[in-house]
Prior knowledge:
Blueprint: H1 2-21, E1 44-49, H2 61-76, E2 81-86, H3 95-104, E3 109-110, H4 136-144
Parallel strand pairs: 1-2, 1-3
Amino acid sequence: MKRNSIVLMAIILAIMSVLSGCGSGNGDAPSSQSAVPVEEFEPVVLKFTNSSQESQYDTNTNVQAICYFRDEVEKRTDGNVKIEIYWGGALASSNEDIVNGLQTGGFDFNLNGHGVYGDYTDAFFPFSVPYLLQSDEEYAEFVDDP
């Protein structure tokens, strides 16, 4: 369970890093460009599919993290980016359906372990080797090491 929490937090931090990189910077904009008010942007709705049930909120850290992610994105974008969560594998239930849905744009996010993607790219192959990493510390070092 602790390992799942670490993986989940790493995924959330990666997503938050991407979102913060897309935000407005503190640097000065060239004087020829004027700032565009947020109101002029069309709201965006992103789809997040997951095999867990929302009713597992009290016992499942993945469900808690997904709900936290949704709430933070909506809060930090003043509601201009909304995340619709589809629970219980409503949009995709098998690994193949999940990968296909992500590739074709059927939905935008999914929360799976890295090992699932080992069948599709060698980049994730080490995550699918059983017993490769013996502790949370080894896992953290493996993931964080460039």
